Amino acid sequence: MKDSYGREINYMRISITDRCNLRCRYCMPDGAEWIPMKEILTYEEITEVCQEAVKLGITRFKITGGEPLVRRGCPEVIRMIKNIPGTELVTLTTNGLLLGEQLEALLSAGLDAVNISLDTLDIKKYEWITGFDKLAVVLSSIEKAVASGIPVKINAVLQKGMNEEEWLPLTELARKLPLSVRFIEMMPIGYGNMSESISNEELKETIRKHYGNLTKDFRVYGNGPAVYYSIEGFQGNVGFISAMHGKFCNLCNRIRMTSTGDLKPCLCYEQRWALKPALRMENPEKRQEEIQNILRKSIENKPQMHCFEDTRQVTESHPMGQIGG
Question: pLDDT band at 192, cuts 50/70/90?
Fold first, then answer.
């Protein structure tokens, strides 16, 4: 599938739950009103969407939340999607709290890679940001994942006045371990609209001054827009996802599906297409045809670019946990 601007769309991010076991200050500091489970797609419905998506050339899938591992049976939906003929990759984004205990099941299901969100290596600051004293659990999960041989990426969001000095200890993780540390610029969605992001261009220069030369790494590490650099003496590398100061919309290859079955072609805008009515049609042939029609329609209407630089034009009002971060 190509959108109206000629971009090939081969990647779908799938939220399987809006629930989370952390309360990060920039996501859901006051908690959230959970969506009733009857409104959440079943694993069978998610798999059926993926079956039709693969027929259209969408062959790479990312399982997200909320926190996907709080939903019972998460490894099973990964197995179901991996078993679809034509599926290339199924990966997972997690906060790491439950990763260690579910890692064996995830690997058995065929998980191809894992992204772990981590904004600090300071115990007190981690508790302040997330609401829980669980940093040791996350670090243990990272070590187990790396030891398993699965590709591991650490996703870090730096914010002024919160954790801006954490760039150094986080970068050091890539020296000690064969993983990628990616710095993601905060996007003005939900509570993120109240935070002051740090420019990745400034951060890259800070890292360059500290370590010396950064060598651009042109190897492919996943599905997204991260730009990677290697540093002499490091086992891993450092990546930058610069939605605000390095607009990469011309390379966008994704759509998103919320846990309730709404397709979102762009994170910035409220515009979405509901799959649930089609999924609950009784006639299998009509159901499959309508799912494909909705997938096509959402891709054909994908905007040319986001407008995060002018928050007055951002129409998405849902928190990231309900969209699928």
Answer: very low
Give the Cα separation of 140 and 137 in Å (integer): 5
The reply, when asked if residue 25 is annotated as ligand binding, is: no
Architecture of domain 11-323: Alpha-Beta Barrel (3.20)
Q: Is 280 annotated as a binding residue?
A: no
Strands 254-257 and 237-241: unpaired
Q: Does 307 carry a binding-site annotation?
A: no
Q: Is 62 annotated as a binding residue?
A: no
pTM for the whole structure: 0.90
Question: Which sequence spans correspond to the domains of the chain?
Answer: 11-323
Q: Is 50 annotated as a binding residue?
A: no
Query: How far is residue 115's CA from residue 134's CA, in Å, rounded to a whole number?
Result: 17
Q: Is 268 annotated as a binding residue?
A: no
Q: What is the pLDDT of residues 69-84, one digit of tens each?
A: 999 999 999 999 999 9
Q: Is 287 annotated as a binding residue?
A: no
228 is in an annotated binding site: no
